[in-house]
Protein: Succinate-semialdehyde dehydrogenase (NADP(+))
Organism: Marinomonas piezotolerans
Amino acid sequence: MFDQKLSDKSLLKTKGYINGEWVSSDSEKEFEVFNPATGECIANVADLGPVETQRAIEAAHSAMSEWTKYTAKEKSALLREWFNLVMANQDDLATIMTLEQGKVFAESKGEVAYGASYIEWFAEEAKRIYGDILPSTTQDRRSIVIKQPIGVVGAITPWNFPIAMITRKIAPALAAGCSVVLKPAAETPLSALALAELAQRAGIPKGMINIVPGKKSSEIGAQLTDNPLVKKVTFTGSTRVGKVLMAQSAQTVKRTSMELGGNAPVLVFDDADLDKAVQGALAAKFRNAGQTCICANRILVQSGIYDEFVSRLTAKVEQFVLGEGLAESSTMGPLINSNAVEGVTDLVSDALGKGAKLTVGGQVKEGAGFFFQPTVIRDLDQSMRLAKEEVFGPVAPIFKFETEDEAIAMANDTEFGLAAYLFTKDQSRSWRVSERLEYGMVGVNETAISSEMIPFGGVKESGQGREGSKYGLDDYLEMKYICLGDI
Ligand SMILES: NC(=O)C1=CN([C@@H]2O[C@H](COP(=O)(O)OP(=O)(O)OC[C@H]3O[C@@H](n4cnc5c(N)ncnc54)[C@H](OP(=O)(O)O)[C@@H]3O)[C@@H](O)[C@H]2O)C=CC1
Ligand SMILES: O=C(O)CCCC(=O)O
């Protein structure tokens, strides 16, 4: 399958990557990777476990002491070369991503560029790690703060963004001076391994990046959280697993960064620019077939424009073409697996059973693969599961509200707090509402809020820590205070 599709076939790697070597599992076991658009097996990948992970951690630990000998400028140059290679191989990386993850090729290309932007950004930030000299309480001493790499980083990433979620952890880690052992999602190991191949070609020293693909995620996770050589655990994925990893990390008091589930509301006020609001909600809802933690999960529309909003959004959604991601005609791909299809189906049935109304979609697509039709549902209320639970799929539930206070209360009525959006032309309302929304990120009249230059992250049970931006290095650095007394 890959043979005909990649211009550089050596980007297809199916072994683990430890200490600069491509390795099988000790047991020689492999696991299958599937194309979610067809259900076909597209590769067999080495099934590594806790023992190989321990080896990777030890390699990472040794590599870090070598990496400290590189100047900031040398580290920066290596990261820059990795960025160049990722961009030079954008089409092949996007092909691999579409085949294992399902998103349409244009979106995969966009994600490769987005993922690369974190490498470029942190190549630059690697040169900007500063210390500080503080005022002193006495004449005979000086107080100095230096920043040092926290240590070996254990990273676990999800399948929904198989490149960007990796680069936004590995690039700041390397820039800060840390090495990484990363476990990619079992659904999408091939993108991670191709990235490692390009890092190797860029000259990033052995042991600095280690990739441990494997199906025994809880055992690999236990090794990463229990091993005292690992000083920090960074995770993107479900809140359930994030809590497990935080609890495990507490035993050795590791620093953690958690980017967990979301339940993003889009608040559309009567005074909004309706075209802009429909377009924004559409983009935020259907990106990656709705499988993004900042996807619009609940669309809250004020009563005066409710019917008009529903009919305009429905008309746009009717235009989606569902299909295999490499087909040029497709504008939306499949969900990741059959569990995902079942989960979405259950949430839709619950809402329809309790009186909500379908305006488009609502069905599993017949035939091969894991497709669910792009769907709009209206007239929801707070009793329905869609009001509280994250629907990781192409379903736009539209709720009605009367007043600003009611909309804010509905928006905040969740344990999640990742991203929220609002549409209004009233300047003071945009400030007022932004400040009252209990979320880590708020988009005002804009839903395309992500970039390497902004601090991505949430509050409440959506996690802790921020990725990207000038703050993104902090999670990988320790602050050391040095008190210099008189000689
Ligand atoms: N914030 C986000 O970006 C994401 C949120 N989600 C949310 O989570 C739901 C479930 O998706 P799912 O893929 O199951 O997410 P998970 O949280 O289960 O998976 C994310 C990553 O964690 C790994 N993992 C799973 N269990 C453990 C464990 N006990 N210890 C260590 N690592 C573990 C997975 O490995 P493996 O693949 O090998 O099981 C994968 O690499 C989605 O429907 C969505 O609501 C999901 C993905 C991303
Ligand atoms: O966690 C996710 O679902 C991916 C984040 C997408 C983004 O960075 O915009």
About this structure: The first helix runs from residue 2 to 5. The two ends are 70 Å apart (CA to CA). The longest strand covers residues 141-149. The mean pLDDT is 98.
